[in-house]
TrEMBL record, chain A:
Residues 1-22 form the signal peptide. Keywords: Signal. It comes from the Bacteria. Coiled coil: none annotated. InterPro entries: Membr_insert_effic_factor_YidD. It comes from Lacihabitans soyangensis. The keyword Chloroplast does not apply. It holds the Pfam family YidD. This is Membrane protein insertion efficiency factor YidD.
Automatic annotation (TrEMBL), chain B:
Keywords: Membrane, Transmembrane, Transmembrane helix. The chain crosses the membrane at residues 224-243. It comes from Lacihabitans soyangensis. This is Tetratricopeptide repeat protein.
Automatic annotation (TrEMBL), chain C:
InterPro entries: TPR-like_helical_dom_sf (IPR011990). Gene3D superfamilies: Tetratricopeptide repeat domain. This is Tetratricopeptide repeat protein. It comes from the Bacteria.
């Protein structure tokens, strides 16, 4: 009997604790947690060997070179991300040529040609996006 | 007698049910007007269930789906609302056509409005011209627009002036040729001369380095080949870039016209 | 006769915000109690629309705000708490709504808005509300880096003040890490600043990259000619050298944030324990 009562008390204490946790846990992330590690989704979901090799190169560049670099690219996605995305979508030859072209365009001299991303103050240039004009108004 | 009247009124108001047809309709209209399109969709689903023969409600349901960007849901809804797609009444049919156009499923959209009986011949012409303009098919658009019966139709007149504005484009082939001869000139041709100069600089720089390395270290040394390889990459990239820049140049001109067409379309329909 | 008329008018008045409205409101309340918050919000919004006499407002606004809070839509929730605040005259309720609004702003990391609300709040007589207010203020001061004020507030809430003292002592040590110093150290020798903050991986990486490029440049300067070497390697060296010391500063800032986050969460653990004990 005593055992049961003690067990019950302990359990109820645990439950109470959970409830209190719910109150305070809302405030756990009020401060920035200082995590500056990035995750590169571009290098995931590789479909063939070529993609695996290029993703490996991309990750190598990102971890050992780009991590020590300033944000020098004027675009979002950056040139290396553009490269891996283009190779994945258009294959090694066309993707590679597109990336070479992109490297020459990455000069910041003609911002009028691109849309502007306000969140990170960079120009938008994504190899996957085909620009279209919406036909139908979205407000009426 | 007066008491009876008062009693009647009080009972009448007592029975007010905010989920009945009248009130739901009021609320649905309010949701649609205030921009809460997803909630409006749910409301009109219920209303259409209440009154399965009301076309205004069906139109509003389709509109709620379109404005809340649930285009595929809306498109799947039409066969449930109407048995025969060729007999869909005008307002619902127009809303459905808009849904299809927003979803960019052009061939399905064309099939739908061409077989519908409630669109007039002129409506069909105008919708076909719209689809041609947005598919970048201006030649087809001109021949289709010539079929219109009422020549003073405002949308028809507007489209006509847009089609006339479509002037001669720059040729991507020429840009490729120019880029192949002088790197960067293809980009300069489509008025991106800054990018063109950078292209020229990169390609020429690499070619020069490669030439120097071959001269100095001979053909068996790796340096010349590396510089040459990168240079070749920049050269090919420059040809691609010239074509792309020219296509972008053309696209921007056409996009401006398409924006104009979209504004006209949205004021007319 | 007059009495009968009066009765009828009264039923009439009740009738006009009739059964449907009342039952919908009750339905929304049960949804709310069953924690089906999205559906509850929809039902409450319907009540608000048909509530032509604006009687349900004071009850519905805080409920919608609570639902949105539970749905983690904090920005919308804050604006509904605002509506709730203006719909009531009761000062205790008003304070409760302001406190919830402060919570929203804190979670959204909009510290300045939270501070404005906190300063606009009157003295409360309710002890639980006072405790809530102190808790919010403790968090806010910590987030705004006013650590002395924050310490005072945490001491009010946590019974074991020696622990709080200890944690704030640790917190003071964090302030000694200087991003500027990390930057200067990395300028003197690439990677040193990163090592100073404790990031060995990036320190080594930066050191190897910069010195490697420098060595490559020097080697080619001796073997070939200096101009050629400078053209080939200097731009790259400059890029990674400059990148290295600027990154050192950023890494230092992030490190400080990480350590503060840890201390802050330990403080919250203490508050949590206290809350359990007081219950």
């Amino acid at each position: 009997m005593k055992y049961i009562v003690i067990k019950f008390l302990l359990l109820s204490l645990l439950l109470l604790r959970n409830e209190a946790n719910a109150q305070v846990s809302l405030y756990r992330n009020v401060l920035p947690n200082g995590n500056i590690k990035k995750e590169y989704v571009e290098a995931k979901n590789n479909k063939n060997e070529v993609q695996v090799v290029f993703s490996g190169l991309f990750l190598f560049y990102k971890t050992f070179f780009s991590s020590q670099d300033l944000t020098v690219c004027t675009f979002t996605p950056s040139c290396s991300e553009y490269g891996i995305l283009a190779v994945k979508k258009f294959g090694m030859v066309k993707g590679g040529i597109m990336t070479m072209d992109r490297l020459t365009r990455c000069n910041g001299l003609s911002p009028q040609n691109y849309e502007f991303d306000k969140t990170n103050m960079l120009l938008k240039d994504d190899p996957r996006v085909i620009p279209t004009v919406p036909v139908v108004s979205t407000i009426k | 007698m007066r008491i009876l009247v008062l009693l009647f009124i009080s009972f009448a108001t007592f029975g007010q049910d905010i989920f009945n047809y009248e009130n739901s309709r009021k609320y649905g209209d309010y949701l649609l007007k205030s921009g809460q399109f997803e909630l409006a969709g749910k409301e009109f689903e219920r209303l259409v269930y209440f009154a399965p023969d009301n076309d205004t409600l069906k139109t509003n349901l389709l509109r709620a789906y379109r404005l809340s960007n649930q285009t595929s849901l809306g498109i799947a809804k039409l066969p449930v609302l109407y048995n025969n797609p060729s007999k869909v009444p005008f307002s619902s049919a127009l809303e459905y056509a808009k849904l299809q156009m927003q979803n960019q499923s052009w061939s399905a959209a064309r099939d739908f409005w061409n077989q519908n009986e409630n669109f007039s011949a002129d409506d069909k012409v105008l919708l076909n011209v719209t689809s041609d303009i947005f598919n970048n098919n201006f030649k087809e658009a001109r021949t289709t627009l010539a079929l219109i019966k009422s020549t003073d139709n405002e949308l028809g007149v507007g489209y006509k002036s847009i089609l006339e504005k479509e002037t001669h484009k720059k040729s991507p082939g020429l840009a490729a040729l120019m880029s192949a001869v002088v790197p960067g000139s293809g980009k300069a041709y489509s008025k991106n001369w800054k990018d063109g100069i950078v292209s020229l600089f990169f390609t020429a720089g690499m070619a020069f380095q490669s030439y120097r390395s071959f001269n100095k270290f001979g053909v068996n040394n790796h340096r010349g080949w590396i510089y040459g390889g990168i240079g070749l990459g920049f050269y090919l990239g420059n040809i691609y870039g010239g074509v792309k820049s020219t296509k972008d140049f053309n696209r921007k001109k056409i996009n401006a016209l398409q924006h104009e067409a979209s504004a006209l379309f949205n004021t007319y329909y | 006769m007059k009495r009968v008329l009066f009765l009828i008018l009264i039923t009439n008045a009740f009738g006009s915000f009739g059964q449907g409205l009342e039952s919908t409101f009750r339905f929304a309340n049960t949804l709310y109690e069953q924690k089906s918050y999205q559906n509850a919000v929809e039902a409450y919004k319907r009540v608000l629309f048909f509530d032509t006499l604006s009687v349900y407002g004071p009850e519905v606004y805080p409920k919608i705000a609570d639902c949105l809070f539970s749905l983690k839509k904090y920005q919308e929730s804050a604006s509904y708490f605002d509506l709730a605040y203006f719909s009531t005259q009761d000062s205790v309720l008003k304070d409760a709504y302001i406190l919830k609004k402060i919570s929203c702003f804190l979670i959204l990391q909009q510290y300045d808005y939270a501070e404005v609300e906190l300063l606009g709040m009157d003295e409360t007589t309710d002890p639980k509300q006072q405790a809530d207010k102190d808790f919010n203020e403790a968090i806010l001061r910590f987030a705004k880096q006013e650590y002395d004020l924050s310490e005072q507030m945490f001491k009010k809430i946590v019974a074991d003040t020696s622990l709080v003292n200890e944690l704030f002592e640790k917190n003071k040590k964090i302030s000694k890490i200087s991003p500027k110093k990390a930057k200067v150290l990395s300028m003197i020798m690439p990677g040193l600043g990163q090592l100073y903050v404790g990031d060995v991986k990036n320190g080594l990486n930066s050191f190897l990259l910069s010195t490697g490029l420098l060595a490559l440049g020097l080697r080619s300067a001796f073997i070939n000619n200096p101009l050629d070497a400078a053209i080939a390697t200097l731009p790259w060296f400059q890029r990674y050298y400059q990148g290295g010391y600027k990154k050192a500063e950023l890494i230092a800032v992030a490190k400080i944030q990480e350590k503060r986050y840890k201390i802050y969460n330990q403080l919250l653990d203490e508050v949590d324990k206290n809350a359990t004990l007081s219950k």
